[in-house]
Amino acid sequence: MTSLREQHDVLLFDLDGTLFLGGTALPGAPEALADAAGAGCRIGYLTNNGSRNAGQVVDHLRELGFAAEEPEVVTSGQAASRLLADRLNPGDAVVVVGSKALAGEVTAAGLTVAERAEQARAVIQGHSPDTGWRDLAEACLAIRAGAVWVATNVDATLPAERGELPGNGSMVAALVTATGVQPVVAGKPEAALFHEAVRRASAERPLMVGDKLETDIAGANGVGMPCLLVLTGVSHPAAVLAAPQSQRPTYIGADLTALRTDQDQLRPVGQAPWRASRDGDELLLEIDPDAGADAAGDPDPVAALRTLCAVHWGAGGGQARVRGGDPAAARALRTLGLGAR
Question: Same structural domain for residues 274 and 324?
């Protein structure tokens, strides 16, 4: 058996929903990364959250038990600041809507921070819980006057222990409404963050690991990077099954233990003992009686999801209704939250 991690020279991990939720590491996540590093895998941390600099991200990761190093971290704030530096002259002034850490990335890129819109040649916008109307107002004036506008990300929500909270994309949407302008986006699913991570790691065979179809998976697909979706965060099985082609992962795993699994077992293909088929306008999942299922316990429900994806995506995809054809299939669908009857 050749494990998935052995096929890649760098493993790039999303943070929220993949390694932790809020201030709590996901079960087994620190051990999975330590195990991968011990097997010789290089690690990268890729975050759409531009509110922290690399040092702050490392501090948080270490508090949660991850052996992170600052050069391994690539933030959307870094990628956004690089995009601005490529478009502006050294020393040009930028309105910063976001955290002090984001302002620090701007100055590290050779630019300066503007206090007022009239001084600015650009606007950079990242998440901060302290962003208020006056911050948005200065950015609005600058954008309306023709300033370059870069957003660290446009994630509508931010996962937290209490649930989904407003993300940077929700605040960006307010400025889009006020200005009629769309920003250049640095973070996932756009390419800039992925290119920056590959450049920093000198990666030739990177793997993206994330929990969100519309950012982690769509972004990796957009740059031709293989990707593993883990079902520990935002994107749940129903969304995976209904995913458009641009958001379909190369591999599907329950959690980060998938990194130790043979890559062929993680692909969205038919997997014994499951069998999926069309039954009118429904998908039917059942145990294949010829597959020799182990009577001692129910088969893996994530293998059932991969089997369903293979059939459903092959028929064009879209929203799906799923029915279990036997008790084991019904239990698997309940575990997956797919509404088995």
Answer: yes
- For residue 341, what pLDDT is reported? 43
- pLDDT > 80? residue 306: yes
Asked if the model's pLDDT at residue 250 lies above 50, the reply is yes
Q: Which of 274, 276, 272, 236 is nearest to 252 (CA)?
A: 236
Q: Specify if 68 maps to a domain.
A: no
Tokens 């969100």 belong to 212
Question: 181: closest CA among 132, 130, 122, 127?
Answer: 122
> Is residue 65 a part of any domain in this protein?
no
Residue predicted with more confidence, 23 or 152? 152
Paired tokens of 228 = 């593993």
As a whole number of angstroms, the distance between CA 30 and CA 67 comes to: 8
Structural domains of the chain, count: 3
Q: Which structural domain range is residue 298 located in?
A: 268-336
- Chain position carrying tokens 């994630």: 155
How many Cβ atoms sit within 10 Å of the Cβ of residue 71?
11
Question: Model pTM greater than 0.70?
Answer: yes
Give the tens place of pLDDT for each residue, 133-163: 999 999 999 999 999 999 999 988 876 778 8
Are 319 and 244 in the same domain?
no
- Please indicate, yes or no, if residue 17 is contained in any of the structural domains: yes
- Which sequence positions are flagged as catalytic? 14, 16
Residue 140: strand, helix, or coil: helix
Contacts of residue 92, Cβ cutoff 8 Å, sequence gap at least 6: 111, 112, 121, 122
Count of positions (residues) in the chain: 341
Tokens of 98: 């976001």
